[in-house]
Task: inverse folding
């Protein structure tokens, strides 16, 4: 499923292997960073929209720039399974833009297929 610009995919509709996704979400929780063997910082971030929540994997500087309550518009994201958990990722050509804070309806219910 490929979306056209401006059309956001609800988190509830995400499936492993989907790519080129446009998604808008609020940041609920930011996990503590872990380090890869190569020295990169990786954070697991819980994000949600009005349909469900999902974990987002953020690397390096981007993970330091976000705050709980930020509302983000992301383009060209993709979804895979990591440690038996559906996870949202940012691709090399993705855009990740803060558009607002603290004013979005969301569901904290994890979405599991």
Result:
């Amino acid at each position: 499923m490929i979306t056209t610009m401006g059309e956001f995919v609800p988190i509830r509709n995400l499936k492993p292997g989907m790519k080129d996704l446009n998604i808008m979400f609020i940041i609920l929780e930011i996990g503590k960073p872990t380090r890869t063997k190569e020295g990169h910082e990786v954070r697991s971030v819980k994000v949600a929209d009005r349909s469900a929540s999902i974990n987002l994997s953020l690397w390096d500087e981007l993970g330091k720039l976000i705050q709980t309550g930020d509302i983000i518009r992301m383009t060209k994201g993709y979804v895979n399974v990591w440690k038996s958990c559906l996870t949202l990722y940012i691709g090399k050509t993705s855009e990740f833009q803060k558009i607002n804070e603290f004013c979005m309806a969301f569901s904290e219910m994890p979405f599991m297929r």
